[in-house]
């Protein structure tokens, strides 16, 4: 796509530019102002309005002719914005994903602008290439009017007093804007706490997004939300899915998908704010701020909020709600620490640490199920064959495992008694009668929040509210101690409630 100058700017395909006129690539245009919105001229393109409201898209993502788009531009409904801004010889900024790292930009011989050094962003390449000659399109006309949906919530369950209090608080904050930390222990039932606030937002014609860093979480939440809000169209957006309902009023998405939105949401809920990769990737943080409307309510959900968030809440710089008690009212199981010697050397010699072996035998006799967390895929591949010699049903599962979902299913239905895993399963999987162990709990990957989450896998159901949590280690780490202290503190807070 090239842009033509005739005193006025006109967006037209390369082929339609007459010979006597000069066409220029988008990023080489002099600064120009978009015409103001004018209601009298051509009608608003309703479908385009729906598709483009709250988004920032490339031309290739919109199935409309340039002529249609140009008409809407002239009417002041669409803005063509720069996608990659150059601030200096080695300083670029991608306006879609916020990337400013020089090494994450590259040059190509471009078929669109015909230049040999057209700059593109590598950081958001998985969403389709954005090069500097491609504008980002945004809807700046009247926003798409979402309906007011009354009585959308059909969920019949009952909340505990602590959940109810949190739920009422959230509901009262919808439409006030600002930030809210919802700090709930693992197993507090925080999803149900969100329902009433979301229902209120739907009533107020708001657009809502719940974003989680993990696709697994989105897949687990989708059916629960669909059951709770049966009359509402809910879109699930995650890597690898064909998103047809991107314009839905209620969206559940992985955090990466937020890059596609701009000033879209009135209520934006970020699940597991402390979880990888969100807490390590500040561009995702930028995506969150970009995707929400200015006056939106931003809700952070976490069992283990970062120190920075905790401080903000303590200093009353943001609203905070605590749910220190699990929905069944029992305290969180506390981890016990078990020294197991130089386990890495033992594994290298194809031997299991004795304390771990005893734990496993007792575990298999008990008839209960167990997670065994290990620090890396390498350790997983070393230990699984050794464990299989004790019980052949034992399986290991890791992020890139092609049989990951089958194995998790087999664990869920009890065919696998003990599952060995890397940190992928630390969240979101709830199975009753499950104990938890960590081998190498002193390793760096097991930070405080990871250990708190792991301990939280045990005792989640009311039929089995406790459970054994054992950290096998070769020297206690600070993170192990902080995790234990964290759980003790939450239990104390919970005791004050009962
Ligand atoms: Zn980018
Ligand atoms: Zn180009």
UniProtKB/TrEMBL annotation:
Residues 171-323 form the Helicase ATP-binding domain. The keyword Nucleotide-binding applies. Keywords: ATP-binding, DNA-binding, Helicase, Hydrolase, Nucleotide-binding. GO terms for molecular function: 3'-5' DNA helicase activity; ATP binding; DNA binding; hydrolase activity. One of its GO terms (biological process) is DNA recombination. Pfam families: Helicase_C (PF00271), ResIII (PF04851). Residues 355-498 form the Helicase C-terminal domain. PANTHER family: COMF OPERON PROTEIN 1, PRIMOSOMAL PROTEIN N. This is Helicase domain-containing protein. It comes from Fictibacillus macauensis ZFHKF-1.
